Amino acid sequence: MTDTTIRGHAREAILAAAIPQFNALGIRAVSADRVIALAGVSKVTFYRHFPSKEALVVAYLEAELARVQAVVANAAGAGTTTTLAHALAQEICRPDFRGCPFINAAAEYPDAEHPVREVVTRFRAWMTQTIAAALAVRDVADADGVARHIMMMRDGALVEGYVDGHPDRVAAELEKGVAALVAAA
Prior knowledge:
single chain; 185 residues; mainly alpha; 0% strand; Homeodomain-like_sf; HTH-type_TetR-like_transc_reg; transcription cis-regulatory region binding; DNA-binding
């Protein structure tokens, strides 16, 4: 195994240790020392890959963004807004679901100029644009406005799915709401 491969494995191990902790406990509640211990790496190795905890948080959100982009790309490729709405709704039903990681990160990092918030802003712009593009292909009037409404519905459903404790019901309601909004547009 080369040094590059070992370094890549260490980075992956650190992220693999951090992601479930951030999802379950929140970002600020998880210390770098906890992640280091769970990843089984030294502090030197941790800080070689992530110069700060915030750098780790940015990497966590980048990984989450890539995961969501893959899910949404598969759904958008199916060609219906129903499939896209279903993909958005299924996020609520993940076994480890504790709310939207981007909304949670925004709550923990209030400074809009912070690098963490920059990833949040990028995610939200991408998601809204992706929804608008899917709507435009289907000739939905005011696709941009409808996409913003769907994002608000998504945000509310993600919060409700966590707080309410009945994610299946909330996911079904989100799908119905998106279908009704698109039909009315």
